[in-house]
Amino acid sequence: MFYRPQDGHGLPHSPFSAIVSPRPIGWISTRGSDGRENLAPYSFFNAVAYSPPQVVFASTSTKADRDFGKDTTQNIKDTGVFCVNIVEYAAREAMNLTSGLYEAGVDEFELAGLERTECETIPCSRVSSVPAALECRLTDTVALLGDGNIAMFGEVVGVYIRDDCLKDGRYDVLSYNPLSRLGYRDYSVVNDLLSLKRPDD
Q1: What's the distance, CA 56 to chain centroid?
Q2: Which of 23, 72, 158, 200 is least surrounded by CB atoms within 10 angstroms?
Q3: For residue range 74-96, what is the model confidence (pLDDT) as tens digits?
Q4: Contact 130/179 with Cβ under 8 angstroms?
Q5: Which fold has domain 22-189?
Q6: 56 vs 25, 46, 94, 140, CA distance in Å?
Q7: Are 171 and 151 in contact (CB under 8 A)?
């Protein structure tokens, strides 16, 4: 089949996010200017540069109780910082629980029974148990086409790695099995690896 998005796809559910998959999940923690904390997963997330290291995530809807997108985007706009927590398979249920559309005052750390640890370089908490976390300072905000679509870029200014995830000097994803987002309500987990040499290696 072929379809033009503006004309519709004629399927029960849009295939777009299933086609662009798997996608890493940015489990983003923020602290508002009022001191309240928020934790929410974003599957439109990725690394975008090596030096300095930079990431991007996109928020694709709005909340009636926020002036700027959702709790995450409002907090980042107000404070200029955020933390990306890496999601392991073991945290899948907690991550899913934090994806709900809760009122602005709800603390998802408490809701999901997650311990928090203060970040080293930014005024924000991370999930204590995660295999890795990226502490970020906002560098750019881009309004995307469509209502409520916002991309936020950040420079990684601090990196936390859980000790058991380092094996022989390498970050070992099989030590925790990262969770990734597919389409619809589907997820996948990394539990196998293959290596390929580039032609110029």
Answers
A1: 9
A2: 200
A3: 999 999 999 999 999 999 999 99
A4: no
A5: Pnp Oxidase; Chain A (2.30.110)
A6: 11, 6, 23, 9
A7: no
